[in-house]
Specification:
By secondary structure, the chain is an alpha+beta fold. Among the domains are: 119 residues, Rossmann fold; 70 residues, 2-Layer Sandwich (Dna Ligase, domain 1); 123 residues, Glycoprotein, Type 4 Pilin, CATH 3.30.700; 68 residues, RNA polymerase II/Efflux pump adaptor protein, barrel-sandwich hybrid domain (OB fold (Dihydrolipoamide Acetyltransferase, E2P), Beta Barrel), CATH 2.40.50. The protein is built from 17 helices and 43 strands. An eight-stranded antiparallel β-barrel has the order 28-29-30-31-32-33-34-35. Strands 3-2-1-4-5 form a five-stranded parallel sheet, with helices on both faces. The radius of gyration is 28 Å and the shape is globular.
């Protein structure tokens, strides 16, 4: 039995009411929901804050009370410390939990909480400051004896000096925003000729995300693994490490999969990295949950990267292998209690893997997607399968915040079992309404390299051919399942409409295809991308006969209200789900999904593609750079402008060779989804 996977809870003489009566959560999304869940179990009341864009968000619905703090822009809401503290005082909250992101690593906010007599559930402001700037943190770590990556961490930000330092270090190098994290303001540079452009891009992104364009330059370790150590400290001076997480599988320096323990980790190396992490935490007088991140070489050596002075997105894998609730530990430590366990009392059990489910399109460079979650069905949860989410079916993914849908976490007795459970859970995950990465994740965890734990931060780039197949033909069964589901929806709609009619028993209301001189024949037309398919339909005695590419097959089945389809196609019984959303018919079958579109064959007119020349914004954002002057002749794939959306930069490239005729925007403009940005005409 797997019931031991439930998180154990610290036994104390009192309850959560001995700690805090009420806490305010200065965050949103899944972390806010998670804190509410733990606080409620401890008997602590919760206050949620929300922006106008989050008025109907899940964390608002779950909290005991909720207060509006401003418009959607984060600087006017979730990053507005004054408004959050006003909300805390108005609600009578004794403490503020910052979650992660936003104000969680803001020393000024921690100081403001203290000045207001409100407990900040996090480290002291001094620790946040010490680790907040990567360059200063590295100098501190060097004094503490923590190994460092070779690089330049100085204050002089002259581009010429930085370029010389990169030459001295030797390419490839990594440019990193000193004040930030999450992959923002970070670029790998392989040659000197690309350094200036990469530096400018990093500085722009860092300034926009963190209000600080200071960067550092480090040697890029070839085939590195990203291993981080979870640490915890209390106000009595105790510090422990709760083992490691392997976060090597990344794209754009952002984590995609995380697992614990790290595959191949020896006890000696774990003790060495854990000891270094504890030394790092002690060096800054750390209190609460934190993460010390390292780059690890294949030879066993490792280098300090940075310390995240907050709870991490991937903390659930640590919880799953230790059985501990780290949010509960945060609350107890913030209330002045000592750490619940000593180092020798901590142990690893089993293996856990986390996959981040995002509203993004992997086939378009992981471009974030926005829209309504018209259909959202996660896999069944158990002691071994956990879903942490801040959204439910019907909620919106907006352009204002991170597009994470959920975190899917699985546990197994060993890595092989955990991986099998992850594959099954991804096959059961159904998202319709926004582009998402579920199919991509399914391909990723099926890679032989991942199965064999041949991990490093370049895995996704190295396995492009398997992760982005170009010859992925749609199986015949998918077309047939979509057609059968459509016929069953038509029948159900007709039955509904006729239920209250006076002539509901009339044979003329039956959709059995009967005609005086035979049975009716019709066609259903579906397409996906440039592939168009026609399915012939003929009513049969016990269902329908479908014709696809000249092959006739008898079909029938049942379609549930949850879009579950049990189908009989010829002699085979198949199970799938076909979700209708507008013209979209999303087919989930055998662990994959296909976004088919039902074509209205009565529609007369073009598709809109005839209006060539304009390049439109793929999502709302701010124009931050125009790459080439008007009149420039460009080749296909050339950068035309840079759009900042969802805190990341997105380059708009030329879809074909041509001449830039005009820009319909300027640097600094905020543009809506679909706004025409560039006019590109054919080259003379």
């Amino acid at each position: 039995m797997d019931t031991h996977r439930r998180l154990s809870h610290t036994k104390k003489n009192g309850t959560g009411n001995d700690m805090f009566k009420k806490i305010l959560i200065a965050n949103r999304g899944e972390i806010a929901c998670r804190v509410i869940k733990t606080a409620r179990r401890l008997g602590v009341a919760t206050v949620a804050v929300y922006s106008e864009a989050d008025a109907n968000a899940r964390h608002v619905r779950l909290a005991d009370e909720a207060l509006l703090i401003g418009p959607p822009a984060v600087r006017e809401s979730y990053l507005n410390a004054d408004r959050i503290l006003e909300a805390a005082r108005a609600a009578g909250a004794e403490a503020v939990h910052p979650g992660y992101g936003f104000l969680s690593e803001n020393a000024g906010f921690a100081d403001a909480c203290a000045a207001a007599g409100i407990t900040f559930i996090g480290p002291p402001a001094s620790a946040i400051r010490a680790m907040g700037l990567k360059s200063a943190a590295k100098a501190l770590m060097e004094k503490a004896g923590v190994p460092l990556t070779p690089g330049y961490h100085g204050d002089d930000q002259n581009p010429a000096l930085l370029a010389r330092e990169a030459d001295r270090i030797g390419y490839p190098v990594l440019i990193k925003a000193s004040a930030g994290g999450g992959g923002k303001g970070m670029r790998r540079v392989d040659r000197a000729a690309d350094f200036a452009a990469a530096l400018a891009s990093c500085q722009r992104e860092a300034q926009g995300a963190f209000g600080n364009d200071h960067v550092l330059v480090e040697k890029y370790v070839l085939k590195p693994r990203h291993i981080e150590i979870q640490v915890f400290g209390d106000t009595q001076g105790n510090v422990v490490y709760l083992f490691e997480r392997d976060c090597s599988v990344q794209r754009r320096h952002q984590k995609v999969l995380e697992e614990a323990p790290a595959p191949g980790m020896t006890p000696a190396r774990r003790a060495a990295m854990g000891g270094a992490a504890v030394n790092a935490a002690r060096a800054v007088g750390y209190v609460g949950a934190g993460t010390v991140e390292f780059i690890a070489n294949p030879d066993g050596s490792f280098y300090f990267m940075e310390m995240n002075t907050r709870l991490q997105v991937e903390h659930p894998v640590t919880e799953m292998i230790t059985g501990l609730d780290l949010v509960e530990w945060q609350l107890r430590v913030a209330a002045g209690e000592p750490l619940p366990l000593r180092q020798e009392q901590l142990a690893i059990e089993g293996h856990a893997i986390e996959a981040r489910i995002y509203a993004e399109d992997p086939d378009k460079g992981f471009l974030p997607s926005i829209g309504r979650l018209v259909h959202l069905v996660p896999p069944p949860q158990s002691d071994c399968v956990r879903v942490d989410t801040g959204v439910e079916q019907g909620d919106e993914i907006t352009p204002h915040y991170d597009p994470m849908i959920a975190k899917l976490i699985v546990w197994g007795d060993n890595r092989r079992q955990a991986l099998a459970r992850l594959r099954q859970a991804l096959a059961q995950y159904r998202v319709v309404g926004v582009a998402n990465n579920v199919d991509f994740l399914a391909r990723l965890v099926a890679l032989p390299a991942f199965a064999e734990a041949d991990l490093d931060t370049g895995l996704i780039e190295r396995e492009q051919a398997l992760l982005f197949p170009t010859d992925a033909a749609v199986p015949d069964d998918v077309w047939l399942l979509a057609a059968l589901a459509e016929l069953m929806r038509e029948a159900r709609l007709a039955e509904r409409r006729g239920a209250g009619a006076a002539d509901r028993d009339s044979p003329w209301r039956k959709l059995d295809g009967w005609r005086l001189n035979g049975r009716v024949q019709r066609q259903l037309v579906l397409h996906i991308g440039d592939v168009r398919q026609t399915v012939g339909v003929e009513a049969g005695a016990n269902g329908h006969v479908l014709t696809l590419d000249g092959r006739r097959v008898a079909v029938h089945g049942t379609l549930g209200s949850d879009s579950e389809l049990h189908a009989q196609i010829g002699e085979r019984r198949l199970r799938a789900a076909v979700v209708a959303a507008g013209a979209r018919r999303q087919v989930f079958f055998e662990g994959r999904s296909w976004p088919l579109v039902l074509v209205d064959t009565l529609h007369v007119g073009g598709t809109g593609d005839e209006a060539e020349g304009g390049l439109r914004a793929p999502m709302p954002g701010r124009v931050i750079a125009l790459a080439v002057p008007v009149g420039t002749r460009v080749e296909k794939g050339a950068a035309l402008l840079v759009l900042e959306a969802m805190k990341m930069e997105h380059t708009i490239s030329a879809p074909r060779a041509g001449v830039v005729k005009a820009y319909h925007c300027a640097v600094g403009d905020q543009v809506a989804d679909g706004t025409e940005l560039v006019e590109l005409e054919a080259a003379p």
